[in-house]
Amino acid sequence: MISEAAKMRFATEVAKYPADQKKSAVVACLAIVQQELGHISIDTEKMVAEYLDMPFIAVREVTTFYNMFNQRPGGKYKLNVCTNLPCQLRDGVKALKHLEETLGITMGETTADGMFTLQQSECLGACADSPVMLVNDRTMCSFMSTERLDQMIAGLPVSMAAISSRRSMTGSMARTGIWPITRHGAVTRRCARFSVRTVVRV
Ligand code: FES
What's the whole-model pTM score? Predict the structure, then answer.
């Protein structure tokens, strides 16, 4: 189950709403669970439902509606490739197929080494930048040609390690185009050279 620190974060989120509206914190609480455990199990959904005094099915509806919530354990890097119509018209499916061939998995699967999970995504709101993809629900990558995809796959472990440690970001990220997630969430910074940007933090 979740840690005491996570429960304290639950309380902080719940405190943002009127006492009779605890359920308004459901998305935030599920995000906290996922940050701590990597995915949201049925048991944790029940725990959140109990904590927020809401029906289990209402929590389940939220978990299954948003594809940013992982319903089972996945790889270290979750790659969501947009294949909605505008992206399909500009090589979105080609990008997904290329990743399937490169990683040796099909959509929805995780590589045997546990590094990458590949998923199809609905519109990410950046149609003009297609093909686009989202890495670990937070870092959006635009204009992902096969060359950029290969570059990203090769550089992701280095760049994400840099994000975690918050050290020496500029060098490794400049090479792969992954920019840091700021402490305060939404990021406006954008790299013209690699067309990669970070997006909303949960
Ligand atoms: S259709 Fe892919 S970002 Fe909108």
Answer: 0.71
The kind and range of the H/E element at 135 are: strand 133-135
- Domains of the chain by residue range: 4-65, 77-199
CATH placement of domain 4-65: 1.10.10
182 bridge partner residues: 185
Pocket-testing residue among 67, 80, 81, 84, ligand 1, by greatest number of atoms within 8 A of Cβ: 84
Give the whole-angstrom CA distance, residue 52 versus residue 195: 40
CA of 65 to the centre of ligand 1 (A): 18
For the domain covering 77-199, report its CATH number.
Answer: 3.40.30.10
Higher pLDDT, 95 or 177: 95
Mean pLDDT of 89-113: 94
